[in-house]
From TrEMBL:
GO molecular function: ATP binding; protein serine/threonine kinase activity
Record's protein name: Kinase-like domain-containing protein
Keywords, in A-Z order: ATP-binding, Kinase, Nucleotide-binding, Serine/threonine-protein kinase, Transferase
Protein species of origin: Mycena pura
All residue ranges annotated as the Alpha-type protein kinase domain in the record: 1-207
Length: 244
């Protein structure tokens, strides 16, 4: 079983009259599915600040991060570490019908909250979900045999579990996009990580020496944020469809 939360739709209407949210390198717009099983339900469209028409490699990196994250979550469930489900919002690359521009579309998440960042910041709210998310990050490093770390965990709680969105993968090869801080980022994360009730004593950790390279912050840290230009202007109401 794959713990993925899918669009289950092929078209949506996106309201670009007002930005819904903005992240390190993406702008988020609200929308509503118009065709498919989720018709009438809310969705979001995420546009890269560099200009979604031209930055194909960002989409490729994003989908690779989603693939790796889904593998970690599925392996986590196979280990039966907790009894509640953790699912991943799985975006698809859709096209703006009018312009052909590319965006990432996925279901809306309610009650959005953040549990950790890619520099080792962790929520201090406590509780089982907070402990579980810190453990999921630690587990990802162990499960990948030290090749990468899943972090920047955020999403929303539902009656049947938790839904994550927009994760970050930091890898030894530093090949998972502009938020991949590489081995220095992994070490910085673990210098601040404190194992909770769901971490296992036998899980791998990197060798950590000295001070963390990256300052701790709640927001997502990028490698070179200065190279990202501003987005192009968009029309207020845009229709998108599946396909890329």
């Amino acid at each position: 079983m794959s713990y993925a939360r899918l669009n289950n739709a092929t078209r949506a209407e996106i309201d670009q009259s007002q930005v819904f949210a903005t992240g390190a390198f993406k702008i988020v717009w609200k929308g509503v599915y118009t065709v498919g099983a989720r018709r009438g339900e809310r969705c979001v469209a995420k546009e890269f600040k560099t200009g979604s028409v031209y930055e194909k490699r960002y989409f490729e990196e994003e989908m690779n991060v989603i693939r790796l994250t889904q593998g970690v979550i599925d392996a986590w469930h196979a280990e039966q570490i907790i009894t509640r489900d953790i699912r991943l919002n799985t975006p698809q690359i859709w096209e703006m019908i009018a312009t052909g521009a590319k965006v990432l579309v996925e279901p809306m998440i309610e009650n959005f909250e953040k549990f950790n960042s890619n520099t080792g910041w962790a929520s201090n709210t406590g509780g089982a979900w907070s402990d579980a998310m810190q453990a999921l990050s630690h587990f990802s490093f162990h499960n990948s045999n030290g090749e990468f770390l899943l972090c920047d965990l955020q999403g929303g709680v539902y009656s049947d579990g938790y839904v994550l969105s927009d994760p970050v993968i930091m890898s030894r090869g530093q090949n998972c996009g502009p938020t991949d801080l590489g081995l220095d980022g992994i070490r910085s994360f673990f210098q601040r990580h404190r194992c909770g009730s769901f971490c296992k004593s036998g899980w791998m950790k990197p060798r950590v020496i000295g001070r963390a390279v990256h300052p701790m912050r709640m927001g997502t840290t990028m490698i070179n944020p200065a190279h990202l230009p501003t987005r192009a202007n968009r029309t207020p109401l845009t229709r998108v469809q599946e396909g890329y």
